[in-house]
Amino acid sequence: MRFPPCVLGAWILLLPALSAAGAGEGAVGAFDLGLLTPAALSAERERWVVLDGRSRRAYEAGHIPGARPFSWEDHTGTDPSGVPYRMWPPGRMAGALARVGIGPDTPVAAYGDAGRSWGGEAWICWVLAYLGHRGPIRLLAGGIQAWRRAGLPLERGPAPPPRPGPGYTVALRPDVLADRAAAARAAREGRLVDVRSTWEWWTGRIPGAVHVPWTDFREGDPPVPISAGRFRAVLARVGVPADGPVVFYCAGGVRSAWAWLAAVLAGRAGARNYEGGMAEWRQAAR
C-alpha cells in the first residue's frame, strides 16, 4: 500500500487501539467512530458485521467474505415532496439494519472504494451515527483496494440469506443532521461547505456557501480521510472558522457524509451533514 508519510504516521499511532478487543478501539468524538485496518478486520472478522457500501454489481464481482451489501442507492428514495436521494425514514432504515443482523450495540465495519462509491461507506457511518448507534462504527481504511493489496481473500456472487438480529432501536442524534434552515444559517455565518464538483458548483449553489470538493477530504493511495492537520488547513483556506459548527452538503448527502466523517475523525465538534442537499434546496425554491 502507498500512503503519504502523514497518513502512515497516523496509522502507526492508531494500530495498538485498532487491534484491541475493547469497544472503544480507535474511536473519536461523541460516538464510537474510527478507522480499522485490513489486518485488524481480518484478525477479528467474526466480531464485526461488515457492510459493503458499493453498488450491487461491484459487490457481486468481489467482496470481503461475509460482508453484506448496503449501498446508498438501495437505501434512499424520492420523498413525498419530490426530492431524490433521501435516506429511508428511521424506522425503515432500522428494519434494514436488523435484517442483516445489526442491533444498536453491534460492532459494524463499513467499506467501499471511495471514488466509485461516491463516499457511500462514509454515508453508512453517518446513518449509524444519526440513528444513535451505540456499538463501534469503523471505516475500513483504504476500502476494498487496501483489502486487496493486503492479499486478503474475496468472495464473489450475491449476498447470503438475511440473518435477522435482535432488532434495532433508534435513538436519533439530530446533532449530526442539518435541515434546510440549519444550512441557511450556516451559510450566513460562513460555515456551509459545498463538497460537489467544480462543475456542479458553477451550475448553481446555496448562496453564501464556500466550495471544497469532497475529494479534498481524502488522501493517499488507496484513499483515507485526511489528517486532522490537513482538515483544518482545508477549511482555513476557504475562510471557515476554526471551531464551532460546520455543515457539509452535496447533491443528496452521500459525498457530504465523507466530509462529515473526515471532520469527526479530525476532532471537529459540531459537524453536520445536510442530507437533503442541493436537491432539497432547489425543490424548496420552486
UniProtKB/TrEMBL annotation:
Start and end residues of each Rhodanese domain: 44-156, 186-286
* Coiled-coil features, chain-numbered ranges: none
SMART domains named in the record:
RHOD
**InterPro entries, A to Z:** Rhodanese-like_dom, Rhodanese-like_dom_sf, Thiosulfate_sulfurtransferase, Thiosulphate_STrfase_CS
- What is a single molecular function from GO for this protein? thiosulfate-cyanide sulfurtransferase activity
Question: Keywords for this entry?
Answer: Repeat, Signal
Enumerate the Pfam families for this protein. Rhodanese
Spell out the protein name for this chain: Rhodanese domain-containing protein
